[in-house]
């Protein structure tokens, strides 16, 4: 799902090798003559619409990726006493930097580590705005806006 959205923005995206530790995707410029930069992306997802908007992430993985894209799939209510399908809505993608993740990272006494996003204004990282962060880092202009 994430690969498709990044490709739609003209960000060449490849799945990382199996059992690769720390990142899931590799993003590059579609024209290798213009940029040789690679961006490593980790992907996390939550399927419940009524999730607490937190996701697991160990602090030791911070150096292994450049961005994390969290996808809230919003495929229904699972924690409320309401029909599951009432909670169905479009998925939301958030492209988050390591700095953002460090700021909102929490380590419980039990050792459980997670990133808390409930109540945090993340509009600037949402959907296309977030994908644009990666495109800008790679120097990829928006399709159709390049002068020939």
Can you characterise this structure?
- There is one protein chain.
- The chain has three helices and eight strands; from the N terminus they run H-E-E-E-E-E-E-H-E-E-H.
- The protein has 148 residues and is an alpha+beta fold.
- It has one domain: Trna Endonuclease, Chain: A, domain 1, CATH 3.40.1350.
- It is globular and about 55 Å long.
How do the strands line up in the largest sheet? Answer: 1-2-3-5-6
Number of domains: 1
Helix proportion:
10-25%
CATH C-level class is Alpha Beta
Question: What is the second-level CATH architecture?
Answer: 3-Layer(aba) Sandwich
Shape, principal axes of CA atoms:
globular
Overall mean pLDDT stands at 91
Largest sheet: 5 strands, mixed
Kindly, what is the distance between the CA atoms of the first and last residues, rounded to a whole number of angstroms?
31 Å
Uncertain runs are none
Strand content: 25-35%
| H/E element sequence | HEEEEEEHEEH
**Can you count the beta strands?**
8
Radius of gyration: 17 Å
Please tally the helical runs, counting DSSP H or I stretches of 4 or more residues: 3
